[in-house]
Amino acid sequence: MVKPFSPMELVARVKAHIQIHRSLKERKKENCLKAGNLEIYPESYKVLKKGSPLELTGREFEILMLFARNPNIAFTRERIFDRVWGMEAVGDMATVTVHINNLRDKIEEDPSNPQLIQTIWGVGYRFHPA
Q1: Whole-angstrom Cα distance, residue 71 to residue 116?
Q2: pLDDT tens digit string along 5-55?
Q3: Domain boundaries, the chain
Q4: What CATH number is given for 55-127 in this structure?
């Protein structure tokens, strides 16, 4: 501030700076989705399993987010492909199965007996947070 200034202007500027600081501090708190022993941070593309970070690919993270935002809803492979890859994407539906198997290897306690991403025979997959 340039002299001379009024005390009221000084108080107003300090209040404005405090307000800016508070809004920036609040913005740093990211929403967290919890599912079993997983913590999912959508904005930063970060997943923690029992407090340890997991290395997921972009597609694996998008599939996990689709499931976490829609728990206990059955998804066909076609529906997962459309939601994650997009309607314009050209590809084989088997890629969904491969990505889900890779995701299970990373997030499940026992990938051979998955608890979070369940297979619904003849339909597709369902996310069941514990």
Answers
A1: 10
A2: 788 888 888 888 888 877 776 656 668 888 888 999 998 899 999 989 999
A3: 1-29, 55-127
A4: 1.10.10.10
